[in-house]
């Protein structure tokens, strides 16, 4: 249930900001960069699920960056370029790009391509590791992904509702990353009766309060699920994970 973290790489501030804001609006964590150094800094700093990479980056070439990254890791890459001829597209694919989107583009089309590439990446990962289940250990607690069980530091199981379990999974999958209420609501598919952001935000606040009451030593002074003022919530403790065969 990790919220997709997408790196938007473009040296045009207006285009970069437009893509970042659009992706955030649709439930993704979008991070900006404009150089290869910026790309590598983000990759070193945490999980990146997909890179939107412009071909022309001032003095740098996005195709070369794509080829260099592909030698080192499997992060999906969508090239974005004003160069739309077939040989330009082929050059992108030959350097290791997963998809190629020509400028100018409809933002809805870009979003559809992003979702398609993320879906392919998830399916591939699921097929490779479908017999493994992840166990999370945090703040003395253990969450068993196979059994959907939360075990307290004292060794007893705490009963969580489906929504509480979903929220816990989202937080565990995104440790130390402040998440907005809207991002959490999108991940959990929580909306108001009319899809209103305000209604879904209140629902998340209530849900966080319920989960805190079950796993925090002092729900009024939480140590694990902390409030990020002006943003939302963050899982503020380290997470250890293991894959069981």
The number of strands is 15
Uncertain parts? 126-132, 191-197
Mean pLDDT: 86
Q: Radius of gyration in whole Å, from Cα?
A: 20 Å
When the domains are counted, the total is: 2
How would you write the strand order of the largest sheet? 2-1-3-6-7
Label the CATH architecture of the largest domain: 3-Layer(aba) Sandwich
- Binned, the helix content reads 40-55%
As a percent range, the share of strand residues is 15-25%
How far do the termini sit from each other?
20 Å
Please give the largest β-sheet. Answer: 5 strands, parallel
What does this structure look like?
The chain has 245 residues and is α/β, with parallel strands linked by helices. The protein folds into two domains: 5-128, Response regulator (Rossmann fold, 3-Layer(aba) Sandwich), CATH 3.40.50; 133-244, Winged helix-like DNA-binding domain superfamily/Winged helix DNA-binding domain (Arc Repressor Mutant, subunit A, Orthogonal Bundle). Helices cover 43% and strands 24% of the residues. The chain contains eight helices and 15 strands. It has helices spanning 13-25, 36-45, 62-72, 86-94, 107-129, 162-173, 181-188, 197-215; strands at residues 5-9, 29-33, 50-54, 56-57, 60-61, 77-81, 99-102, 133-138, 141-144, 149-151, 157-158, 179-180, 225-228, 232-235, 240-244. The strands form four sheets. Strands 2-1-3-6-7 form a five-stranded parallel β-sheet, with helices on both faces. A hairpin with a 2-residue loop joins strand 8 and strand 9 (141-144). Helix 7 (181-188) crosses helix 8. The relative contact order is 0.12. Mean pLDDT is 86; it is low at 126-132 and 191-197.
């Amino acid at each position: 249930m990790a919220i997709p973290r997408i790196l938007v790489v473009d040296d045009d501030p207006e285009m970069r900001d437009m893509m970042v804001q659009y992706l955030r609006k649709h439930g993704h964590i979008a991070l900006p960069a404009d150089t290869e150094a910026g790309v590598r800094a983000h990759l070193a700093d945490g999980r990146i699920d997909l890179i939107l990479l412009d071909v022309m980056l001032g003095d740098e070439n996005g195709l070369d960056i794509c080829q260099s990254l592909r030698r080192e890791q499997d992060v999906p890459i969508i090239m974005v370029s004003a160069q739309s001829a077939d040989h330009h597209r082929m050059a992108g694919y030959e350097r290791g790009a997963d998809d190629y989107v020509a400028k100018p583009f409809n933002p809805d089309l870009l979003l559809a391509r992003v979702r398609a590439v993320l879906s392919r990446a998830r399916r591939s990962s699921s097929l490779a590791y479908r017999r493994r289940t992840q166990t999370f250990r945090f703040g003395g607690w253990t969450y068993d992904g196979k059994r959907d069980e939360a075990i307290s530091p004292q060794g007893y199981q705490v009963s969580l509702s489906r929504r509480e379990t979903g929220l816990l999974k989202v937080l565990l999958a995104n440790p130390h990353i402040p998440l907005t209420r809207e991002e959490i609501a999108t991940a959990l598919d929580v909306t108001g009766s009319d899809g209103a952001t305000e209604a879904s935000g209140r629902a998340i606040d209530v849900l966080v309060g319920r989960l805190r009451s079950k796993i925090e030593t002092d729900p009024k002074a939480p140590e694990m699920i902390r409030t990020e003022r002006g943003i939302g919530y963050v899982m503020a403790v380290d997470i250890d994970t293991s894959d069981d065969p």
